[in-house]
Amino acid sequence: MRITISGPPGSGKTTVCDKLSSALSFSAVVFGRIFRELADERGLSLSELGIIAENDFSIDRMIDSRLVTIARENNDIVLESRLAAYMLTAAGIPAFRVYLNASPEVRIRRIGTRDNETFDEALAKTTERQASEEKRYKMYYGIDINDTSVYDMMIDTDTTTADEVADMIINALEAEGCL
After folding, report:
1. Are 95 and 6 spatial neighbours (Cβ–Cβ below 8 Å)?
2. Is the pLDDT reported for residue 66 higher than 90?
3. Is 86 exposed, middle or buried (0-12, 13-18, 19+ CB in 10 A)?
4. At a CB cut-off of 8 Å and minimum separation 6, what does 44 contact?
5. Homologous superfamily of domain range 2-159
6. Cα dist. 121→112, 124, 171 in Å?
7. What does pTM read for this prediction?
8. Which of 6, 52, 91, 171 is most buried (most C-beta within 10 Å)?
């Protein structure tokens, strides 16, 4: 069973991906880590790499083609990516597609805590990053990142723990007969 975990920054995607991977004994791939590693390799911030990616489609193409290849080669995997649900749907690869969301205040607080930044610093960086991603995804793929019609399940993570979210997903998969 392929499971995609998507949502905006700070919604809990990576944590839930790790929890599901552990609970189901599935491999997990977190594509945000690949983007962060690429930024680090180039000595850039996420925002700086995002701006470069707005003019260099090869960055997104490399990451997103890797996602599709990994999904094709693995039946039991959890894929965390903003575009995973869209990419697998377009490629005709079956998956259970989950969208996590939280209020902007909760998401920015989480990001600030994770990155050791003030609320205002995290807000500025996240706003810039989201605008860049939204622009790139529309420009390169024709994807409106705010269109949630591709998802099988949507979960608000404002007051729900990562363990509870993982349990909700597992319960939904069991109810669908997927596990």
Report:
1. no
2. no
3. buried
4. 52
5. P-loop containing nucleotide triphosphate hydrolases (3.40.50.300)
6. 8, 5, 37
7. 0.86
8. 6
pLDDT band at 50 (very low <50, low <70, confident <90, very high): confident
Give residue 19's identity as a one-letter amino acid code. Answer: K
Q: Are 143 and 135 in contact (CB under 8 A)?
A: no
Q: 53 with 136: CB under 8 angstroms?
A: yes
Written as one string, the DSSP assignment of 143-170 is --TT--TT-SEEEE-SS--HHHHHHHHH
* Residue 26, pLDDT above cutoff 90: yes
Q: How far apart are CA 36 and CA 118, in angstroms?
A: 20
pLDDT value at residue 73: 94
3-state DSSP percent of the chain in helix, strand and coil, to 5: 60, 15, 30
